[in-house]
Amino acid sequence: GIIKDMIACDHSKQAKLNELVEQLTIIQNELFDAGAELATPEDENKKFSYPYKIKESNIKRLEEDIDRMNEALEPLKNFVLPGGQILNSHLHLARCVARRAERECWRLNATEPVRDDVLVYINRLSDWLFVSSRHCARVLGVKETIWNQHRGK
C-alpha cells in the first residue's frame, strides 16, 4: 500500500503501519461525511438533513486511538518539529491542514451553526495526526527532531 511505497521496513513494522492505514481510511470516510454535513444547510426545522453525521462515537474512537498510541511513547518534554522521515512529515502536514480546517469551521460557526461534534472531531483529529507521527517514528526507529529554542542565537 501507500506506506509500503513511502518507506522500506521489515514485515513486523509494516504490519503496525498497516493498522495506521486502516485507521486513516476510516478517517478519510469520516472527513467526507463531515465535509458533506458542512455543505448541507439546516432544514426548516433547524435540523441537518445530511444523514451521515459525525457522532460522539467517532470522536471516542479517535481518543481511544490516541491513548493506545501514546501508551508506548515517551512523554513530551519539548516541542517536536516536523520531519524525521517522509511518513512523519506527511502526518505533520496533515495535522496542519486539520488545524486550518478547525479554524475555518469555527469561522463558519460564527455565521452558520456547526454541530459541536464536528468541531470536536476536527480538533481531536489534529491531535490524532500528531500522535500518529510520533507513533510512526517509534515504530520505524526514527529519532524525532526536538525544537531547540536557543538554536542559532
In short:
This protein is mainly alpha-helical and 153 residues long.
Task: Explain what the structure shows.
- Helix content is 65%, strand content 3%.
- It has 153 residues and is mainly α.
- A two-stranded antiparallel sheet has the order 1-2.
- Helix 2 (11-39) packs antiparallel against helix 5 (116-140) and helix 3 (56-71) runs parallel beside helix 5 (116-140).
- The protein is globular, with a radius of gyration of 18 Å.
- The model has no long low-confidence stretch (mean pLDDT 83).
Q: Which regions are unreliable across 5 or more consecutive residues at pLDDT < 50?
A: none
Topology order in helix (H) and strand (E) letters? HHHEHHE
Secondary-structure content class: mainly alpha
Mean pLDDT across every amino acid position: 83
Largest sheet: 2 strands, antiparallel
Instruction: Give the tally of β-strands.
Output: 2
Distance between the termini: 43 Å
Overall body shape: globular
Helix content: 55-70%
Question: Helix and strand layout, with pairings?
Answer:
Blueprint: H1 2-6, H2 11-39, H3 56-71, E1 80-81, H4 86-109, H5 116-140, E2 145-146
Antiparallel strand pairs: 1-2
Key phrases:
mainly alpha; 153 residues
